[in-house]
TrEMBL record:
CDD domains: ALDH_F5_SSADH_GabD
InterPro entries associated with the record: Ald_DH/histidinol_DH, Ald_DH_C, Ald_DH_CS_CYS, Ald_DH_N, Aldehyde_DH_dom, Aldehyde_DH_Superfamily, Succ_semiAld_DH
Sample GO molecular function, one term: succinate-semialdehyde dehydrogenase (NAD+) activity
Any GO CC annotation of this UniProt entry: cytosol
Enzyme nomenclature, EC number: 1.2.1.-
GO-annotated biological processes: gamma-aminobutyric acid catabolic process
Phosphoprotein recorded as keyword: no
UniProt name for this protein: NAD-dependent succinate-semialdehyde dehydrogenase
Keywords, alphabetical: Oxidoreductase
Family under the similarity heading: Belongs to the aldehyde dehydrogenase family.
Stretches assigned to the Aldehyde dehydrogenase domain: 24-480
Upper lineage: Bacteria, Pseudomonadati, Pseudomonadota, Betaproteobacteria, Burkholderiales
Amino acid sequence: MTTTSLTLSDPSLLREACFIDGEWITGADTLDVIDPARGTLVARVPRLGAAETEAAVIAAERALPAWRALTADERSRLLMKLHDLLIDNVEDLARLLTAEQGKPLAESRGEIRYGAGYLRWFAEEARRIYGETIPAHAADKRLIAIRQPVGVVGAITPWNFPNAMIARKLAPALAAGCTMVLKPAELTPLSAFALAELARRAGIPRGVFNVLTGDAAAIGGVLTKHPAVRKITFTGSTAVGKLLLAQAADTVKKVSMELGGHAPFIVFDDADLDAAVEGAVAAKYRNSGQTCVCANRFIVQAGIHDAFVEKLGARAAALKVGPGDAEGTVQGPLIDARAVAKVESHVADAIGQGARVVTGGRRHEAGANFYAPTVLAGVTPAMRIAREETFGPVAPVFRFETEAEALALANASESGLAGYFFTRDIGRAFRVAEAMEVGMVGINTGLISTEVAPFGGVKQSGLGREGGRAGIEDYLEIKYLCFGGI
Ligand code: NAD
């Protein structure tokens, strides 16, 4: 297999080893990391299993007492140092990310800054882990609640945001005083290893942050069952999330689940058409549609429908498709052949049931993993694309008449992660935002993600929140102290 030539100003950020207890560990078995744009080999990483995971958990358990005993300010300073190292190395980290994941370099740079944002936010939050004093129920008693780190955290992350999905778990966990064993997606481990290298350089002690790749089921099995792991935090598909929830039940671990989405995007007749189209492009085609908060169902009112479809189609057709590291690219490849096949099958099913291709609807000549930005009109609830997350650059458009009808369509999903709508009616803005069964709502915007706000879903989209003030809560236990004989 040919290899991708990756030029970094600091080549030591490209690591092909796992990081356990402060040591780089290789293995006899390896996994190939493939550039999705070209199908070439980027790197080979270890394929580790249960024994190494057990070693990593023990290392994290050993590192825990000293780490949690640091003052909040000491932990905060180390996290800020890691933040600074991410920013200092943004160009190399973006190149690594694009090589393994495919997204355009500009998006990769944005992701590294977004990930660094979580480190800064939780470095700040580390110093605000307050407890409470509680008015006592008896004159001779005094009541206090304190908050303490949960302990060792097992983290499992997906390939679509290889840096940020880790940063938003690592930062609150370490800020709270927890230690971590991370299994990143095997398709995109290089960003995770680079983060481990920067954590080492920042002075985060050995054993506090461990990263390993390999047999996902074996690693996940140890993380979910080992008694020393007190919390599982997962971002990925709903199917794997359910499996991990079941596995973690036996030892009653705390769990956070950031699972799949199927976001509705409603455009009302009174919307600003151009703003709605720009919002749709941002919410749909970023990361080639491989984002959990991607708009997946465009629900458009009859009066604005035809104009919206026409403009969105023109914008989608004009998006420049190509390798993420090529000048001017705004649409990279999908992650692999399986992802392209899924998009193809969703589009074929929709066309078979009467949907009309406005633009795209086919693979793209840029390479095997490329799919043309697509808009489909005439979509109905019976089509697979209406029920399942496509995870690709396809915008299916439904038509509706009344607000009630739009809400019924929007809420007809087991998922409840993000939702979007465009309107200029303030009363409707409140009504619809409150009625949408989702964890996050974009009103007159297609971009909602930020480290300062709580990110997460309802229904089968997950449990818990990442970011914002809520993001550190899942890594803390509350302990109530009752003083008597005062
Ligand atoms: P995935 O569930 O296939 O994989 C996610 C992670 O789980 C990977 O690290 C994978 O190796 C691991 N995994 C797979 N099987 C496992 C097992 N049996 N035991 C332990 N670990 C296992 O998901 P994906 O394809 O990598 O990511 C795409 C999905 O993630 C989409 O559904 C997307 O919506 C979702 N996602 C959600 C959020 C969110 O915040 N809600 C963010 C990003 C992605």
